[in-house]
Amino acid sequence: MASFVWTLYLGFLFWASGAMGAAPKKPVDVPFGRNYVPTWAIDHIKYFNGESEIQLSLDKYTGTGFQSKGSYLFGHFSMQIKMVPADSAGTVTAFYLSSQYSEHDEIDFEFLGNRTGQPYILQTNVFTGGKGDREHRIYLWFDPTKAYHSYSVLWNLYQIVFFVDDVPIRVFKNSKDLGVKFPFDQPMKIYSSLWNADDWATRGGLEKTDWSKAPFVASYRGFHIDGCEASVNAKFCATQGKRWWDHRDFQDLNGLQYRRLSWVRQKYTIYNYCTDRVRYPTLPPECNRDRDI
Ligand SMILES: *[C@@H]1O[C@H](CO)[C@@H](O)[C@H](O)[C@H]1NC(C)=O
């Protein structure tokens, strides 16, 4: 019986990694309050259906945001978001993981709004030991304001993968062997916020927020967190190695995932710091690894 269950489990892992990448192993539809608390401007958050869905709003006085209750070292974190519709130029909706102290680690999704009918940009970044400047920018292959889509991060000792639905849009491999820091010992909290960034966000700051269209509203659901809760004992998480995300299937992307990643790179990339020779005359070391992908 036990081995039958084990076979089923392995079969599931195999299927999940082949078909869907970092398929969540825990239910994704958990209510907001299970994992998150509001951080600021709490009157700008509205709750629906027993907190299974929330809306953040931005007006000319303030934006708002929320954060996870726990801190985590490794795991899988996802959120379903419907971006600010219509004229969202100047607004930024962010979903990110960040550690607390000065030499911080951070894994960012930032959605830059646009004028009605013009495409959003998804900017991602990775900070390790306080060093960022690793922006990627892409267009999405769908309109992110029309329906919920899932945005997720898989983080283990081997790699950080950014997913949009089931598609890996970016991989940051552990390149410690090349002298690049990798987040492994600082727990991170998960944050989300909606704010005004019309000094840089849309067409580099040329398009200003049209406050006559306020409030700007982004909707959220699926407050899924499946990580090693580290507030208690970070070392325990770092040395575990036994959680599902440590399994061999999640140490690298599979063939299908690499094909999808290269599809995104070829068709949707606007900017990749690894190809910016003006900014980086010497290629950052992790980019050499990146290039093989
Ligand atoms: C907004 O639309 C313009 C025009 O299509 C485009 O150049 C730009 O990349 C879009 N996105 C942002 C966030 O500026």
UniProtKB/TrEMBL annotation:
Glycosites: 114
PTM: Contains at least one intrachain disulfide bond essential for its enzymatic activity.
Coiled coil: none
This protein's UniProt keywords: Apoplast, Cell wall, Cell wall biogenesis/degradation, Disulfide bond, Glycoprotein, Glycosidase, Hydrolase, Secreted, Signal, Transferase
Enzyme kind, highest EC tier: transferase
GO MF annotations in UniProt: hydrolase activity, hydrolyzing O-glycosyl compounds; xyloglucan:xyloglucosyl transferase activity
Subcellular localization(s) per the UniProt record: Secreted, Cell wall; Secreted, Extracellular space, Apoplast
Domain GH16 per the UniProt entry, residue ranges: 23-220
SUPFAM superfamilies: Concanavalin A-like lectins/glucanases
Catalytic residues in the record: 106, 110
Major location (coarse): secreted
Signal sequence, renumbered to the chain: 1-21
EC annotation from Swiss-Prot or TrEMBL: 2.4.1.207
GO biological process: one example: xyloglucan metabolic process
GO cellular component terms, semicolon-separated: apoplast
Lineage: superkingdom: Eukaryota
Family listed: Belongs to the glycosyl hydrolase 16 family.
Function in brief: Catalyzes xyloglucan endohydrolysis (XEH) and/or endotransglycosylation (XET). Cleaves and religates xyloglucan polymers, an essential constituent of the primary cell wall, and thereby participates in cell wall construction of growing tissues.
Name this protein carries in UniProt: Xyloglucan endotransglucosylase/hydrolase
